[in-house]
Model the fold of this input.
Amino acid sequence: MAFPGLLNYWFVVILMMIGFFIVIAHGNLVKKIVGLNVFQISVFLFYITMGKVDGGSAPILAEGIEVYSNPLPHVLILTAIVVGVATTALGLALVVRINESYGTIEEDEIGAMEDDA
Amino acid sequence: MLALLVVTVIAAVRSTDLFAAAILFGIYSFLTAILFMDLDAVDVAFTEAAVGAGVSTVLLLSTLRLTGRYEQRHKHSPALPLVVVGLTGAALVYGMTDAPDFGDPEAPAHTHVAKRYIEDGPRETGVPNMVTGVLASYRGYDTLGEVFVVFTAGLAVMMLLGTRVRGGRSSGREAIGDLLVLRVVGKVLIAFVMLFGLYVQFHGDYGAGGGFQAGVIFATALIVYDLVFGEADARRVMPHIWTERLIAIGILIYLGVGVAGMLLGGPFLDYSKLATDPVKGEHLGILLVEFGIGVAVFGAVMSIFNAFSGLRLPSEGGRDDV
Done:
């Protein structure tokens, strides 16, 4: 590989931190969920990066291919993606209910309403 | 490629239009899928493209329809979060200095069980796609647990949002518009998407694919149908009560295969007894389990979509329950 060996990991950290930033700095609940998803995908990327082997091929048995990438991270992440969308849906469902009870999905406004009550 | 990802995400952060943020998130997912492809993870790329870029975006948009499109500018300064994020990031980068180089075949991740999956997997399971083999056979328990998580999440969403339109008066949301071009293209496209879903389901043992992807792809076909032809028509094709039952049916297929192996004298989720030849039995077991996963995931995605799209805005007549 032409670029430094850890470059991929650094990008994973950058993406992860952007996701983290969205979660803690934004008050909008939908935006927070987008942030969580950004964070989540960066973790997926991290695993898949670990599974890559130089000169390897996709882990499907074929004639004349000797080196395969590691199938284990693929399996873990494959299921994690589907579980991820299911939990995202759950989070969004909660946001919808919060919007029904408070009429807003801004964290500050909800907090203010709670204080008044 | 990675830089492109970062740019997309930063654009998503800056936009206060949540609609744009949702679409940018879809683009981000799709870019990651391409990146996974490049890193040899074809199955994962497949799933990410179908789930992240497809279903997640649809769900985000349905939420926005119910909650409003614009984010408020927040009042407090972003300085403190930036410091926290910077420190965490620095700590992570510092922790990574010892990590093995990218693509190093001697990295610890490749020297334990992975070796056996690659060397013996296809021979022991009769399935050339090692990802499918590991997923359904070696890590069968794990996958079963994950299907249960999907099941539980689907259930929780339905409990939070309610499962069907109450009162029976409403015939459901209308189609997005009576556009001829949508109907014609939709009709042609849906057939192919479904066919492709079936191919992915039953060819997952030889090529990229499997139950998780097929379930999502199949659900996408019906979601498109729902959007183009309206909810009433879609419900005639696939009654809601059935999408809910399908989640349970899928899990029961999975468990049933496990119990069948047990009745034939093997441990739970050991497929080698399902046929006279152990390898054939493994292969058969993997196919059946993948089918169960496909059915369960399809049911879950459809039910979640139905729960979201079944809700009415107050301006549209309000919800009938609550």
Observations:
- The helical segments of chain A are 7-25, 29-51, 71-102, 107-116.
- The two ends of chain A are 61 Å apart (CA to CA).
- Chain A has a mean pLDDT of 81.
